[in-house]
Design brief:
Blueprint lengths: L2 E2 L15 H22 L3 E5 L20 H4 L6 E10 L15 E10 L4 H14 L6 E4 L4 H4 L9 E3 L4 E3 L4 E9 L2 E9 L3 E7 H9 L6 H14 L8 H15 L2 E2 L3 H20 L8 H8 L3 H8 L2
Parallel strand pairs: 1-11, 2-3, 5-6
Antiparallel strand pairs: 3-4, 4-10, 5-8, 7-8, 8-9, 9-10
Helix pairs in contact: 1-5, 6-7, 7-8, 8-10
Length: 311
């Protein structure tokens, strides 16, 4: 029997018993509010962004909270500090979904400073905020090239482990970083882009899992949540870019035996049935044709058809 995706709800108050999904929304929303209040108490402006629409044309979806601020990192005349909660989507984690820590879409709690905050002040900021949640990292990592300079900034408050992987780059902006770990999971990092800026990102869902004990979604729940986030960000199924990703996720839900109470899911299941029947009817006439020909001529993606034929 197909499993239904949980209903998507975002209320903070309920007149009936809460489901696990609803409780997760409440606790996650409370964490965002706590972070917002903390930033405002420090005089730092804060913005919440729930759409995964990208802020530039380098990605199909927003993949990091810093994306909209890239021009400011690169502008030596600009200084200032801002914070946000940004909905993000990273399709690269698709095959890791269901392991308890990887999510396709997630919320990043960010802090961005352009030639104003130092690495030391960013470390103090985050240790103080995590302390308000009753959370002390088990350890932090630092790139060996910055170990002598940055280790004293922790003041013996957290064990430090050298890690040559503590580098970050988006292709145009890069920097060394220090990463925070709790219960074997990376919960966030502080990057020092260009050596003069601060880019901090902490995963809301991972913090919620550790602080509140909120379990992470299984694969089906994560897929359904991601689909609805894409839909609510203004996209619909199609043959290209974001629309194609949406179709791929709808097919994945169907493939693993799930269902989603949304017209897009019903339409995609029926569309795949029609395309599969068309392919079975035509394949013996065109045995040598390439996948590109099938797609360009008949709108049939052979990888999708073969997936459904394996079901």
């Amino acid at each position: 029997m197909a499993a239904d995706c949980p209903a998507r709800r975002r209320p903070l108050y309920f007149s009936k018993p809460r489901t696990a999904k609803e409780v997760a929304y409440v606790t996650a929303g409370r964490l965002i509010q706590q972070y917002q209040d903390f930033c405002l108490s420090k005089g730092i402006d804060f913005i919440r962004i729930e759409s995964v629409r990208p802020h530039d044309d380098t990605t199909l979806f927003c993949s990091a909270g810093m994306q909209q601020y890239k021009p400011l990192f690169s502008d030596p005349s600009h200084s200032g500090t801002v914070a946000n909660s940004q909905a993000c989507l990273r399709m690269g984690d698709l095959d890791e979904v269901g392991d308890g820590t990887h999510l396709l879409h997630f919320t990043m709690l960010g802090l961005f400073s352009f030639r104003e905050m130092t690495v030391g002040s960013a470390i103090d900021f985050w240790l103080e905020f995590l302390g308000t949640l009753g959370l002390v990292p088990d350890l932090v990592t630092i790139h060996p090239a910055r170990l002598v300079e940055w280790a004293p900034l922790y003041g013996g408050r957290v064990p430090i482990v050298p890690d040559p992987e503590c580098m970050w780059s988006d292709g145009s902006i890069s920097g060394y970083c220090t990463e925070f770990y709790k219960d074997g999971v990376e919960i966030g990092n502080i990057v020092n882009p260009l050596g003069s800026c601060i880019d901090v990102g902490f995963g809301l869902e991972r913090l919620d899992m550790i602080v509140n004990g909120t379990p992470q979604d299984d694969a089906l729940g994560t897929l359904c949540e991601t689909v609805m986030t894409i839909v609510e960000s203004g996209y619909r199924p199609g043959n290209k870019e974001q629309g194609y990703v949406l179709r791929k996720l709808l097919r994945r839900i169907h493939k693993i035996g799930g269902t989603l109470d949304h017209p897009f899911f019903t339409e995609e299941v029926e569309r795949q049935k029609r395309l599969r029947a068309k392919y079975l009817r035509l394949r013996d006439r065109h045995p040598e044709m390439s996948p590109d020909w099938w797609f360009d001529t008949h709108g049939i993606d052979l990888s999708d058809i073969r997936e459904t034929m394996d079901e």
